[in-house]
From TrEMBL:
This protein's UniProt keywords: ATP-binding, Nucleotide-binding, Transport
SMART domains: AAA
UniProt similarity note: Belongs to the ABC transporter superfamily.
Organism: Pelosinus fermentans B4
Domain ABC transporter stretches: 6-242
Record keyword Nucleotide-binding present: yes
Pfam family, one: ABC_tran
Name of the protein: ABC-type quaternary amine transporter
EC number from the UniProt entry: 7.6.2.9
Secretion signal, residue range per the UniProt entry: none
Amino acid sequence: MARTAIEFRNVSKQYANTSQYAVAGVNMRISEGSFITILGTSGSGKTTLLKMVNRIYEATSGEILYFGESIKNLKIEEYRRKIGYVIQQVGLFPHMTVEENIGTIPQILKWDTDTIAKRVDALLELVCLSPREFKKRYPRQLSGGQQQRVGLARAMAADPDIMLMDEPFGAIDAITRQNLQEELIRIQRKLNKTILFVTHDVSEAFKLGDKVVIMHEGEIQQFDTPYGIISKPANEYVARLIATQDIVQRLKVLKAQSVMLPVDAQVSDRAFRVGTEESLHNILTYFLEHDQNHVLVEDGGRGVVGKITWEQLKVSTRQGEILSA
């Protein structure tokens, strides 16, 4: 059972000289190692919610717990070093090289020079930038996508428990954004970090998040898996929000594990096999190109854990919705 990394207990935020709450009565538990996307339009409270986690903003009322302890009881400087923070503007220091930018927090923590150098190289490799080619460059010598990769590496430099990301890909072109999304998914699976990721893009939220928080006017409208939200929207607002996504987009962001059926005791060796993270769009494409009535779903060392039938996807797309298994 995963530990609770962050818990909100009836948390509200009201700014001075305003009658409305930016965040109102939020109760939520975020499990360690989960990837949570926070989705909402401008003014919905999503960024305020994020910034209360690392105490850039203090809650007006309620309590936020970090692994069971109120963050108000923690020394703020030490607490913030346990949390990586990535924003849209990146915020790299222009007068520092890539190497110096990434090594900022380790230097503050008084790591030795060799340890910092090895950490910088390892992180650049992790974000797919060659240390030999990039660590002596300055931010002005990098593309927007490269700067964002360095910003991500810098946020991970001290191996934080939690990563906060505030629309980090919002200013990036569509192709680079898609590549960065894939890299972030890969990194999260490898390191098992707890990530809170703010976005206003429905597709991005559903693609990245194990669970999605949908906010509107400071309140959480729904907190569920992408499949749970698509199959059972909590209210009219959520239903309208996800209605902007056509069936093809939904199939692209939903994963095999979200709809797979129980598998029979005996399975055919000839059946096509996919991973639990395979998109339903790719599985539908396979069905359209091959004469088979089902695929098997595998989960690494556990072997076959389920199946998806052609009939299941065919009915789903014909009705314009994804049906519950």
